[in-house]
Write the structure tokens for this entry.
Amino acid sequence: MTDLSPHPTSPTTRSGGPNPGILAAVSLGLTVGGLLSSAILTGGQTFVSPFSPASQVAAFFHGNPDAVRLASFFQFGSAVPLGIFAATVYARQLRLGVRVPGPAIGFFGGITASVFLMLSAAVGWVLSRPEITTDVPLTHALSFLAFITGGVAFVVGLGLLVAGIAVPALILRFVPRWLAWAGLVIAALAELSFLSMVIEPLQFLLPIGRFGGLLWLVAVGFLLPRSRAAANRQET
């Protein structure tokens, strides 16, 4: 039978590591910074959808190389603290005595999200090169690759990270129940976003999973207990 009870850890064990709330806030801040910088440099234009006509996609990337390059820079940067967040929270959950698959699932999801976000940013950087965007079919193909890696793949990975934290937090009462339940809802929507690969109207789930997930990670990162003793005080 699966053991959901927290296992005691040594009272001398120190939590160590960076504050996960700060890491999540930095990742969210860089994400927003990328959106704002590209909006400023393009005069308020939003990134063109890869589902738009190929000529329109190519024209956007060819006409806004600086905005695309800067957005890719911020996006790549946001993936780094997210990966560190996943590793930090995984280690903290183990120190808290969580001995269920949740922490490992969350760690896998966080690293997956971070790697795919880096890949999407790298593709975006390639799309900022004028010599690439003169080739319309290639530009269109790369825009789809940037979308699927930075959209569906990233959000699904992020959903696993949220779920891997929310389930143990709900059962062991590491955070307020409403926050844990909110995480489960966000995680479910993030996982369902993969259906947008065949049902395009469901793409609205992608920003919900992305920004909802990052905001949730900020909140839980500051509230997650640093030690088993602190968790016990929260339960009383």
Remarks:
- Residues 20-230 form one domain.
- The two ends are 27 Å apart (CA to CA).
